[in-house]
Design goal:
single chain; alpha+beta; Outer membrane efflux proteins (OEP); 3 domains; 4-stranded antiparallel sheet; 12 helices; 8 strands; about 15% strand; rod-shaped
Length: about 475
């Protein structure tokens, strides 16, 4: 039973990396000394925790995505150079349009054939094979494309700031998660230090008891069995202290990993914890708003993004207008000598295009319906989140109130157990009490101290959970 209670006191993140740290050669590691309050530990984690770092990188990534969206609204200008070699210039077969003109001239001049007869126009002149073009050609061009109006691009530009807010809010949620865990582990270790102080005090008491019992034994007022019992109690406490110190040491490793601190660095916790600190300024100020919770703010931004998605698909049904232009120079040669003399011919055009959606197989209608369903799901999730927050606050409040009551009770019980022990000890020292009585009193005192430590830790964890539930965890 006693072991189970000790595990509750030092139970979070205590298993992380101790073996790895022990295996590192100390001479190759630069050790830095840190003395930190819980707020300093949180600030350190905001700068060094890997999850927070990645969340911040997600914000930078979204900034670049926004630049990509913005680029659609800017002119796109491209230049091109090209040359073509035609080993065989394409041949075109055309109706013979030359011979009819020639015959017509001969007829008009009255020319006669070898038989003295006037020349007659044939009924079919056949075809002529002709090659058009040169073996070499080259083109240099500059083109411009500009979207004048596109509903989807317009919505994308409007949604840029909201997408950034979405990424930044994710950073805040990640930071709050890390902050909550740091609070719990930090104060777990502070409570663990208090537990060690109680053990040290008990060890001092038992050492004195064993010395007194040994003297009484030497003087014939006690038995060897009494000396052995005191020695067994002392050894058990010393063993328990070593186990708790080892567990606390592992807890420090876990806290360092959570903070993003090298596990070889030295960390000293400067904050203390008392009953008054646990009770201070919580239950008298338990009003809360959904908007104070980072998760609720995140969900609201997600709802706005879904609304933008619906608008994007709706605006895709209206015409888009684009402007395109080109300016080019073109040259043809029978030899590749474009850098020499010769003409370059100018080509230029400007196009205004209006694309009017008419029918796309109900694709857009389907996408709008899907986006609306996504919006309804988000609204349902927000409603569920509100219920969850109400439940968290009510439950955390009950747990905290119960923890405070238990803390007060266990503190009074510990003070009473200490009083009983002192009175029993005085009776034993004057020979009016037995070894069994002093052993029982010491055991009760140790149990009361352990119960108080457990109640203190439960109370501080309940306070952290209550502040997180109400969105007031600083």
């Amino acid at each position: 039973m006693m072991r189970a209670k000790n595990k509750r006191v030092v139970g979070l993140y205590v298993f992380l990396l101790p073996a790895i740290v022990m295996a590192q050669p100390k001479d190759s590691v630069k050790i830095t000394h840190h003395e930190m309050s819980v707020q300093q530990a949180i600030e350190y984690a905001k700068k060094n925790n890997v999850q927070v770092k990645n969340a911040l990188l997600d914000v930078k990534y979204q900034e670049q995505v926004n630049r990509e969206v913005t680029s659609n609204a800017y002119p796109h200008i491209n230049a091109s150079l090209g040359t073509t070699y035609n080993p065989n210039v394409a041949t075109q077969v055309l109706p013979n349009f030359i011979s009819p003109a020639t015959y017509q001239v001969l007829i008009d001049e009255g020319v006669k054939d070898g038989s003295g007869n006037p020349i007659q126009m044939p009924s079919d002149f056949g075809f002529v094979a002709a090659q058009f073009g040169t073996k070499y050609s080259a083109t240099a061009a500059v083109s411009l494309s500009q979207i004048l109006f596109d509903g989807q691009v317009f919505v994308g530009l409007q949604a840029r700031e909201v997408t950034l807010q979405f990424s930044r809010k994710n950073v805040e949620i990640t930071e709050e998660m890390i902050k909550t865990n740091i609070y719990k582990i930090y104060y777990q270790l502070v409570v663990g230090k208090t537990q060690v102080e109680f053990l040290d005090a008990n060890i001092v008491l038992l050492e004195k008891l064993m010395r007194d019992t040994r003297i009484m034994y030497q003087n014939g007022f006690a038995e060897q069995l009494d000396v052995d019992k005191a020695n067994v109690q002392l050894t058990n406490l010393q063993t328990e202290k070593r186990k708790i110190l080892n567990t606390i040491s592992n807890g420090y490793y876990g806290l360092k990993v959570l903070m993003g601190m090298p596990v070889a660095d030295e960390l000293v916790l400067t904050d203390t914890l008392s009953d008054e600190q646990v009770k201070d300024g919580v239950l008298g100020n338990d009003a809360y708003k959904y908007e104070d919770r980072k998760e609720y703010q995140y969900a609201q931004i997600g709802k706005s993004l879904n609304e933008y998605n619906i608008r994007r698909y709706k605006l895709s049904q209206i015409p888009t207008v684009t402007l395109n232009g080109q300016y080019a120079k073109n040259a043809q040669r029978n030899q590749w000598n474009f850098f020499g003399s010769g003409d370059w011919f100018t080509i230029s055009n400007v196009n205004l295009n209006v694309s009017i959606p008419i029918f796309n197989g109900f694709y857009t209608k389907s996408k709008i319906a899907q986006a609306k369903i996504d919006l309804q799901k988000t609204e349902n999730q927000i409603t569920a989140l509100q219920l969850s927050i109400d439940n968290e606050v009510a439950s955390a409040k009950n747990v905290f109130q119960s923890a405070i009551s238990s803390l007060d009770f266990q503190k009074r019980n510990m003070e009473l157990a200490e009083k009983v022990y002192q009175q029993t000890k005085k009776k034993y020292e004057v020979g009016m009490g037995s070894q069994t009585e002093i052993t029982a009193a010491q055991t009760d005192l140790k149990a009361a101290q352990t119960n108080y430590i457990t109640a203190l830790y439960d109370a501080v964890i309940a306070k952290i959970d209550f502040l997180k539930a109400t969105g007031k965890l600083q």
